[in-house]
Amino acid sequence: MRRSSVAEFVPAASQAPDAVGGLPAVSLETVAAAVASPQTDSGLHHAAAPYKVPAAVVLYHPDFTRIGQVAVLAELLCGDEVRLSRSEPPFALPGTGQAVPLQTQMLPDDPILMIRPAGDGVELEFYQPATLCTLDGQQLGQLTQLTADALDYGAVLELGDAVLLLLTRVEVGRPLPPPQGMVGHSDGIQRLRREILSVARVDAPVLIRGETGSGKERVARAIHDASPRANRPFVAVNMAAVVASAAASELFGHRRGAFTDAVASHVGHFGLADGGTLFLDEIGEAPPSVQTLLLRALDEGNIQPVGGTTRKVDVRLITATDADLEYDVENGRFRDALLHRIQVCTIDVPPLSQHREDIPALLVHFLREQLKALGAERLMQPPPPQRLPWLTLPVVRELVAYSWPGNVRQLRNVATEIAVRDHGHRHASLPPSLQRTPTARRNSGAYESVHVGPPSAARRPSGAFESVNFGPPNAARRMSGAFETVALSPASFGGAPPASFAPASPQASRSRTPPSQLSDDTITQALRDANWNITVAAQQLGIAKNSLVTRMAAIGGLRRANQLTPREIEAARAQVGDDPRAMAQLLQVSERGLLLHLRQLQSVRCGERRGDHCSELCVGLDEPDDPCRDSVFRGGGESSGA
């Protein structure tokens, strides 16, 4: 049986057109050469195109230094099978050449399961009692098939309360970029590192987009550190905290005596960053007057301190936002000209739910930091034989299943809470806020048993087996072909979890599909599932929000709330009453977007004339001369006076 621990895998030039799961057959020489390589990519060019290969990623191991290691199962591309046990296959961190098997005494040396190619997915044959192995929290039959979608999303395999693996497909085929101060080895993080290198060498404005807490400032610092300005200042400013009345002084500085409180001269953020990088976080929160000041500075490259004279500054501008700036431009809250100037280059930071294989590595990294500060770093060392580590597998399993709406920042806070609460205890535990069990997310019909018969002497590649009973497996039953077959796919994952502890959606597997290749039905269904919330739907589809907006514009019948006319809103109100949620469902827009659009229409209709009977959600605006309606939607708040 051929073995390989592959972190960098380049297909051989001479490949047969045969395919396993849509991939070309691989020569024995290629498999033998597909060994982890320490080579890194410090430039902008790549020798080969990405190549998707089945793999197992270590999510938990009693030795925490093993977390994140990968065994790329290249044998499956040749049509061979892979045995999983204590002694095989070998695992290695991507970019290193040292590969070793799991090697924990808590696992048997006999095969735990066999992994075989099966169509576009893989087939798992379990050889140990069901209590030793679970897949995504479920005790399954002896034979289980993972579809291509389930493999892309990743299935969590638990082995004997000792090891947690993610069965997935990884992108290989080119050298790895430098770490750049970021933890993780997932495809999403590797792509992010490559994009950072690409924009770092070009002295142009960069707009970093991403959800709150996803690490946008970390990306900005990485761009600065990889740029020719690395030895110059890096100045970070939160634009949400910049007051419009003091913005000119904060950004551009002032001379002593320029105004009453100017007891000393101040150089300003642009002056502090001269020759280096200025990072403006939350750029979407900048007031309109501040946007005008920024636009003038970017256009001319000059700043004028309050009470001083104009001078030129050399600043590389990086901005970041979690807002939909295009939507804000449409609604007059953000200047179109400023958007064009700040997004010469754009980087999308993936949410943590789209690279969950990095969650354990990030958790261990944050725990080490906090425990060191508490003088308890010994807790992260391997335990003595026959003792469980301080950080146990069930804790990591629950955290991997969590959806992380606050992303990496939330994970850091959770790690801090665990360290502070439990550094004096024998084992770490989930914080009270996260103790709801995510494995309860699936109902009893989450998995489908497929009965196929009768079995043939030679096993078919499709993995068709006869289901006889559900008793413990034994050698005689394995020889006779008596197996339970379970087909797993994201569509069969069962009921939706509570919003407070929802696992990352299987829709995230679509992050590997370009927006242009998503069908109209897929786009529409994702929006419907998200209650027409564009941000949530884009996350579920694994695409950028502005990409989803572009696709919506090309699909008939899909609109944003701000595109509705007052007459359409009034017609919906007449049909379902003053219920914004029902109106939003009828109009197929998000409830929040509808409420914002209604407030904007009211502002256009009434201006600043707010009478005692003005509704917070005024509608019926077809006739400009009509008086405001005294109509308050349920859930929209009480009528407010001037």
How would you portray this structure in words?
- The model is unreliable at 1-39, 42-48, 437-487, 489-512 and 607-642 (pLDDT under 50).
- The protein has 19 helices and 20 strands.
- It has helices spanning 28-33, 148-153, 187-200, 216-225, 247-252, 268-272, 288-300, 325-330, 336-342, 359-373, 393-401, 407-422, 475-480, 520-529, 534-541, 545-554, 566-576, 580-587, 591-606, and strands at 19-20, 23-24, 51-60, 70-72, 82-84, 113-118, 121-126, 133-135, 143-146, 155-159, 163-172, 206-209, 234-238, 277-281, 302-303, 311-312, 316-321, 345-348, 448-450, 485-488.
- Helix 3 packs across helix 4, helix 14 (520-529) crosses helix 15 and helix 17 crosses helix 18.
- Strand 6 (113-118) and strand 7 (121-126) form a beta hairpin.
- It is of the alpha/beta class.
- It is globular and about 80 Å long.
- The longest helix is centred in the middle third of the chain and has 16 residues, at 407-422.
- The strands form five sheets. It has a six-stranded mixed β-sheet. Strands 4-3-11-10-8 form a five-stranded antiparallel β-sheet. Strands 13-14-17-12-18 form a five-stranded parallel β-sheet.
Rg measurement, Å: 28 Å
Uncertain stretches: 1-39, 42-48, 437-487, 489-512, 607-642
Give the percentage of residues in beta strands. Answer: 5-15%
What number is the mean pLDDT?
A: 74
Order of the strands making up the biggest sheet: 5-6-7-9-20-19
Query: In terms of structural class, how would the helical and strand content be classed?
Result: alpha/beta
Distance between the termini: 79 Å
How many individual β-strands?
Answer: 20
The largest sheet is: 6 strands, mixed
Query: What's the shape?
Result: globular
Helix content: 25-40%
User: Helix tally?
Assistant: 19
